[in-house]
Design goal:
Layout (H helix, E strand, L loop, with lengths): L2 H40 L7 H17 L4 H25 L7 E7 L5 H10 L5 E7 L2 H9 L5 E8 L3 E2 L1 H9 L3 E9 L3 E4 L10 E4 L1 H6 L1 H5 L5 E4 L3 H10 L6 E5 L1 H7 L3 E3 L9 E8 L11 E9 L5 H11 L4 E8 L7 E8 L5 H12 L1 E11 L8
Helix pairs in contact: 1-3, 2-3
Length: about 375
C-alpha cells in the first residue's frame, strides 16, 4: 500500500469515528428531548417555542459561518435535528393519552426497501413501539389488511410535490371506515439502478412505478433510446433486475437505500424532475387518535354539500368564520351519482377542540354527507424562521 493510500485510509478511519460520535450525540439529544417533553407535559406547557427555535438556529448559523460552513448546509442539518426533537415530544404527549402497544404491525406497499417501508420506519422511529411490516402488492391490499384486523396500521402515499395527488388513495379513504392517525413527509431521491457490471449507455429498458416515472419524465425526455415499462411497485421494478442478473440492458428506478440493500450499482442519482421532491404519506388505523391540545394538529374530513345554490360556498365560509385554516381541498366524483362530487378537506385544528366541534356541527347542517377521518400530528415541514 502506498503512502497516499495509507493516509487516505487513516483519514477515513478518523471520519468514521467522528460519525459514530455524531450518532451517539443525536441519540443523547433525543433522550434529553424526552425529558423536556415529560416536564412540559407535567406542567401543561406548549411543546413548541418558535422564538427559542429561531434563536437556536440563528446562533448555530452564525457559528457555522465563522467556521467556514455554509449557512444553507447548517440550516438543513439542524432543521432535521430540531424536527426530530419536536416529533419526539409530540409522540411523548400522545403516548400519555393511551397505552401504546409494545409491537405493532404495519401494512405497506412493496417490500423492505420500498419508499413506503422507508417512510414507515421514519414515522415510527420516535414511538415507543417495535414494528413489523406486512408487505402488499397494491394499495387495496394495504387497506384490506387493516380492515380485516390483520395489522394495526396502514401507510399510503397521498401526494407528491412533483406529480401531485394520487387519486386512488382518496377513493380508499372515502370508501373504507378507517381513520388517519399520522402523516409523514419523505424526501425522495430517485436513482437509476442497474445490474452489476452495467453502464448507463447500455440501458435500453427501465422499469418503474407510474408515480416514479412521472416524477422523472425529464430524464427520459433526454434519453429517447430508453423504453419505459411500468411496474406495480418500486419493489416489483427491482425484481426485474434480481430475476435477470445477466441482462445489462435493463434498469429500475428506486432509492439509493434499495440499491445499497441489494448491492446493485447506481447508474445515475437524483434523476427527479425537481431537486426538492417529497412524498406525503398517511398512516391509517381502525381507531381514532386522541391528541392533547399542546400538539400541533391537522384534521381531515369528507363532505358533500347539499344540492342547493351557494351551499358549497357556505360550507367553506364556515372555516373563515371560525378562523380555521384549510390546508388542502380535493374534489372527487361520486360514481353512483353522475356530475356530483364529494370533497376531501384538510385543515389546521383538532376535531376534539370546541371551535372545530362547533364548525362541524354547522357543516353537517349544510351537507348531505359528512365523514370525519380523524386528527393527527402535523408533519414538521419547516421551522417558520
Amino acid at each position: 500500500m502506498s503512502m497516499t493510500e495509507e493516509q487516505i485510509k487513516k483519514l477515513r478511519t478518523d471520519i468514521a469515528a467522528i460519525d459514530q460520535e455524531l450518532i451517539a450525540l443525536i441519540a443523547q439529544r433525543r433522550g434529553l428531548s424526552r425529558k423536556v417533553a415529560q416536564l412540559k407535559y407535567e406542567n401543561q406547557l406548549d411543546i413548541r417555542d418558535l422564538n427559542q427555535e429561531r434563536n437556536l438556529l440563528y446562533k448555530l448559523l452564525n457559528q457555522a459561518e465563522e467556521l467556514g460552513i455554509e449557512k444553507e448546509s447548517t440550516a438543513q442539518i439542524f432543521h432535521n435535528i430540531i424536527a426530530d426533537s419536536v416529533k419526539t415530544q409530540y409522540d411523548y404527549f400522545i403516548a400519555q393519552q393511551e397505552t401504546p402497544k409494545k409491537q405493532s404491525a404495519v401494512a405497506v406497499l412493496g417490500n423492505s426497501y420500498s419508499y413506503s417501508a422507508i417512510a414507515t420506519r421514519q414515522h415510527f422511529n420516535h414511538k415507543n413501539t417495535e414494528i413489523s411490516l406486512d408487505y402488499c402488492q397494491n394499495f387495496h391490499e394495504v387497506v384490506a389488511r387493516v380492515c380485516e384486523q390483520r395489522v394495526d396500521f396502514a401507510i399510503l402515499p397521498i401526494e407528491n410535490t412533483n406529480s401531485g395527488d394520487i387519486s386512488e388513495i382518496y377513493e380508499l379513504l372515502i370508501n373504507n371506515d378507517l381513520f388517519i392517525v399520522g402523516e409523514e413527509k419523505l424526501k425522495i431521491n430517485h436513482c437509476l439502478i442497474g445490474s452489476p457490471g452495467s453502464k448507463l449507455d447500455q440501458i435500453h429498458k427501465v422499469f418503474s412505478h407510474p408515480q416514479a416515472a412521472q416524477q422523472t419524465n425529464v430524464f427520459f425526455d433526454h434519453n429517447k433510446t430508453i423504453q419505459l415499462h411500468y411496474s406495480a411497485s418500486t419493489s416489483a421494478a427491482l425484481n426485474e433486475l434480481i430475476e435477470n442478473p445477466n441482462n445489462l440492458s435493463i434498469a429500475a428506478i428506486a432509492s439509493s437505500y434499495a440499491a445499497e440493500e441489494l448491492a446493485l450499482p447506481i447508474l445515475r442519482t437524483h434523476i427527479n424532475n425537481q431537486a426538492n421532491n417529497y412524498t406525503r404519506f398517511l398512516i391509517l388505523s381502525r381507531n381514532i387518535l386522541s391528541i392533547p391540545p399542546q400538539v400541533s394538529t391537522k384534521s381531515s374530513i369528507v363532505f358533500q354539500a347539499n344540492n342547493e345554490v351557494g351551499s358549497l360556498s357556505q360550507c367553506l365560509q364556515l372555516f373563515q368564520q371560525y378562523q380555521i385554516n384549510i390546508t388542502k381541498i380535493v374534489s372527487r366524483p361520486i360514481y353512483a351519482q353522475p356530475w356530483k362530487e364529494v370533497f376531501y378537506l384538510e385543515f389546521e385544528g383538532n376535531v376534539q377542540s370546541n371551535p372545530v366541534k362547533s364548525l362541524l356541527l354547522k357543516l353537517e347542517t349544510l351537507s348531505s354527507q359528512l365523514k370525519i377521518l380523524g386528527s393527527y400530528p402535523a408533519a414538521i415541514s419547516e421551522l417558520n424562521h
